[in-house]
Amino acid sequence: MTEAWLPWLLMLQGVLAGFDTLLNHEIIARLPRKAEARREVGIHVYREVIWAILLLGLPWFAWHGAAAGFIAALLATEVCITAWDEYVENRTRVLPQNERVLHVFLTVNFGAILATLGTVLPGWAAAPSQLLPTSYGWLSWLLSAFGLSSAAWSLRDLIASRSLARR
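Given the sequence above, the corresponding structure tokens read:
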């Protein structure tokens, strides 16, 4: 039953993160155009790669054995990146109030994802190492689109970060 929540929580994370990126990072703060935002944009590259992997992998596979450890490592790394990003953001710019509120919802939802996977990963880890095909129907396809968007945005932010470093 718990695992049934996973695609819905991932979808909510994708929607909230996409909204945050487009509205707050692009339209309001214009981060990829500001030299002082280079570090923050660079941090976002790592986050976007992690979410690309999660959003492309979790909707289609059960990650058994050692693969479960890989997912756990990605999640732990995302926790560290979130803390690092908050530290850098709060030292380099004043966040709009809507962005602060949105970050609360993103964090709470990520906690729900962690709680859900925390009940799933031990069972996956105990199984022989393999990727078992799974599907959540149309949600798998939507999450894959989010994952591809995250991968593309990661590349875009990498280019922006390097461009800002040359200025």
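The chain has one domain: 2-166. Try to locate this feature in the token string yourself.
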